[in-house]
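Lab notebook page, bench 4
Experiment: in silico fold of construct C2
Operator: M.H.
Input chain length: 648 residues
Purpose: comparison with the prior construct
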Amino acid sequence: MYTNFRHVLFIIDFKRKTTNFVPLFKILKFDMKKIILLSGCLIILLSGCYNKKSAPASDYIEEPHSFSKPNEAAITHLDLDINVDFDNEIIHGKASYLIKNNKASQIILDSKFLTIEKVQADGKDTAFSLGDFDEQLGSPLKIDINNDTKQITVFYKTTHKTEALQWLKPQQTTDKKHPFLFTQGQAILTRTWIPIQDSPQIRITYNAKVKVPSQLMAVMSAENPKTKTPDGQYTFKMAQPISPYLIALAVGDIEYKAISNRTGIYAEKSMVEKAHDEFSDMENMVASAEALYGTYAWEQFDVIVLPPSFPFGGMENPRLTFATPTVIAGDKSLTSLIAHELAHSWSGNLVTNATWDDFWLNEGFTVYFEMRIMEALYGKDRANMLARIGRQDLEEEIESFKETPDDTKLKLNLKGRNPDDGMNSIAYDKGYLFLRTLEETAGREKFDVFLKSYFQKHAFSTIHTEKFVAFLNENLLEKHDITFNTNEWIYNAGIPDNQAIISSDKFETVEKTIQQFVKTNTVDKTLTKDWTTQEWVHFVRNFPNDIKTEHMAMFDEAFNLTNSNNSYIAMVWYEQAINHDYHGNDVDAKIEDFLIKVGRRWYVSTIYKAFKRNDKTDVALAIYNKARSNYHAVTTNTVDGILGYKQE
C-alpha cells in the first residue's frame, strides 16, 4: 500500500484523464480532508479501476543484475524490427523504445555481445558509449538524451557470442530439413539479442516485425500467426506489460494444431500429432487454474515443442510456452510440466519477482499452483507423488549446499553471481513446501482466498520478498490470528521443523516392492504393470545404496530400463548405472547418445554430476567434447562449471 501523498496525487491525475472523477467523490461523499486522511484506502479503490494491461506506477528498487537506472529513465514500450539471417547466424535490425524520462540526460540499457551501430533520440542521431565489460552482466549502453526525450532507437546486430540464441542446423532438428532458431532470455540473456533494460522489474509492452526465410514460420511470446506467410514477414503484438526475460522468438518449419479456441500446439511436422495428443488436456488445465485463482489474463495459451537442445523443460513465455520434446512420453505422464508453465501465467508472468534474489516468488508459487492443477485433474495421489519427488530433490539440493548453507535460503543474495545459481530446487521445492505448510496451517479455504487476492492485487506488477511478507501478514496471518514462522522459512538456511509432511501410499508400495525383488532375486511384473512414470522414477531412485550389479542387470533385463522411451526414467536409470558401475545392456553407449541428443539442463547436468561424483570426469569430458556444440549456452554454462571445462 502506498502512503506517500505524491503517489496519491499521481493517481488522481491519472484517473482524471480516464474517468469522470468528480461524480465519484459525490457518490462516495468524500471531502478532501477525508481523502488525505484515507489516502491508503483511496489508492486501493482506484487501483481496482486500472486497465489491467497497464503497469502500476511505482519506483524501482536497486538490483544487482542490471546496469539500468530506471528511476532516472525507464523504457515502457518496444518496437522491434529485425531480420533473422540464418546464413550468417545473426539477427540485425533496430529496437525503438518509448521511455519514461524523469528529466534525465542519459538512459542506460543492458547489452552483451552485441554490435551497436548507431543510436537515435527522438529520430536524431545521438552519442552513445559502452561501459566496461562484466563477464556476467555485459556492458552498460549509455545513451545521451535530453530531459524531454520520449523515444530512443538502437540499430544493432547480434554476434556469434550471443548467448540467448541457439542456431540449429537441419540435422539438429526432428525433421532434419530446415534450420531452426530459438531464444532463451531467462535470467539475464535477453540483453544478448536485444539491447534493453534487462531487469525483471521493468515491464513493457511490445510490437515486432520479423523477417525470416520464406519456408519458415516465426512465432513470439505475443499474438501469433497460425499459418506461414508467403514472404516470411511476420508482425507481433504483446499488449500486456511483461518483463524482458519473457520476450521470446522461435523460427522453424513448424505447424499449428488447435486444441480449443484458446489453446494449441506448434511443432515440427512429424511432432504435431504426437504433441497434440500428449497435451490434449491443456484446455482442461486452463479451466482448472481459472477455477482456483481467477481469469487467465493472456487470452491465448499455446505451446511450441522445440528441438531437444532446448535447455529447460519449459519456459513460460506469455501466450506461447516453450517446451522440450523430452516430456512427450506417449501417456501424458510428464504433462505436469505444462501445468507448471500454465501456472506461471499467474505466478511469474502476472506477478513477477522484482529481482532474481526473489526468484522463489516465481517458482515456489508456481510449483504450488502446479500441484493444485494436477490434483484437480488427476487426483491427490498423482499430485502427492509429484510433490514427494520434489521433496527428494530438495533433500539432495540441501546436501549439495552443505558447504554454502546460505544458498538454501529462499531470499538470496546473488550480487556478483550469475542469477542462474539461484535456479535450483531451493526456489522451487522449498518455496513449494513453505506454501504448502502455510496452507495446512491456515486451512485450504482461507489460503485460496489469500492467494487469489494476492494475484489480483498485484496483477501486472513486480514484487520483492519483503513486500510479499507484509502482504502475507496483513491479509492472512494477522487477519486470521495465525502464528507462523515466516522469517525462519524465508531468511534462514535449511528446512524448519514445522514443515508439511508429504506422504504417498503408492511410493510406500514401490519401496516394499524393491525390497521384495532384491531379497528374492526375482521380479514379479504383475506388481508393476500399472505403475505411472512417477512410480518408476521412485523405484529407480530408491535402489539400496549397496545394490549388487546382478540386481541392476535383473531390473534392466526385466524392464528394459536402458532403452526406456521415457526420458525421465532413462535419466534416473543412467544416473544409477554410473553410481553403481553398471555397464550391461550397452548402457554406456546409450548414456553417450542421450547426452549428445538431449540438451535439457536438468537431465544432462544430473548425469555429468554422477560422473564427477564417481571419479569418472575423464569419461564425462570425452562425451562432453562431442555433445557441447549441441547445447544452448544456458546448459554449457552449467556443465562447464560442473566439469571444470575450459574451451580452447
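Observations: The domain at 60-252 is CATH 2.60.40.1730 (Immunoglobulin-like). Residues 1-57 have pLDDT under 50 and may be disordered.
Next step: discuss at group meeting.
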